[in-house]
Amino acid sequence: MKAAPASQKRLLDLAEVDSVLDRLAHRRRTLPELAEIDELAARVARLATQVIAAETEAGDLAREQSKAESDVDSVRVRVERDQKRLDSGQVSSPKDLASLQSEIASLTRRQGDLEEVVLEIMERRETADGQVVKLSAERDELAAARAAAEDRRDAAFAEIDKELGEVKTKRSGVAADVPADLLSLYEKLREQFGVGAAMLQGGRCLGCRTSLSIADVNRIKAAPHDEVIRCEECRRILVRTPESGL
């Protein structure tokens, strides 16, 4: 391939612009906020699951407490009813009187037992409700931290994207100075190796950092100035400049 020396040297400007684009793209991909957001999102999801479990437990205990309190009320009503019968003097038979007193005593014990059950459930429910409040607060705090990290990420994206737009505009201007066939080769090599062209400096390829052999240096010296030279080691386009040591 043939190309004017000035066009070949323009490839170095293009490679420099492309290196800036690569750095910006890498910076965009590796923003610290991205890892932070992923970690916070995972923690928020775990806490959300824990909150649901805690809310379910608290709800179950609330229903259990309601049932236990209903049982207490039912027994209390029976005790009050029997006590009224006893106090009214309607029961005159000694046997029936003893039976009624025994039932009242039994119901009173039953009421006491049920009230203890209610107290125990209330304690468990209080603990469960406290856990719901605690986990919900942690979840909300982490969600707020994630939202703040997303804001920082978006601000960084906007800054990087603005710079990317400016550099891409500059690249278009540089690429317009390179002949189509040479540009096509450069783009192909850049896709393969990350860098499509490198300077030959002091007999050394700055693309792969390999020092050329004497035979290669002599071959390049003998080549016409408009011939497009490739590094034998990395196959990138070697651009000759006054610093090439030829």
Summarize this entry quickly.
With 246 residues, this protein is α+β, with helices and mostly antiparallel strands.
Structure commentary:
Keywords: Coiled coil. Residues 204-238 form the C4-type zinc ribbon domain. This is C4-type zinc ribbon domain-containing protein. Residues 14-194 form the CT398-like coiled coil hairpin domain. This protein is α+β, with helices and mostly antiparallel strands and 246 residues long. The protein has two domains: 5-25 and 179-244, Helix Hairpins (Orthogonal Bundle), CATH 1.10.287; 31-173, Helix Hairpins. It is built from five helices and five strands, in the order ααααβββαββ. It has a five-stranded mixed beta sheet with strand order 3-2-1-5-4. Helix 1 (5-29) runs antiparallel to helix 3 and helix 2 (32-88) packs antiparallel against helix 3. The longest helix is centred in the middle third of the chain and has 82 residues, at 94-175.
List the helices and strands and how they pair.
Blueprint: H1 5-29, H2 32-88, H3 94-175, H4 180-193, E1 197-201, E2 204-205, E3 210-211, H5 214-222, E4 229-230, E5 237-240
Helix pairs in contact: 1-3, 2-3
Domain CT398-like coiled coil hairpin: 14-194
Domain C4-type zinc ribbon: 204-238
InterPro entries: CT398_CC_hairpin, Oxidative_Scav/Glycosyltrans, Zf-RING_7
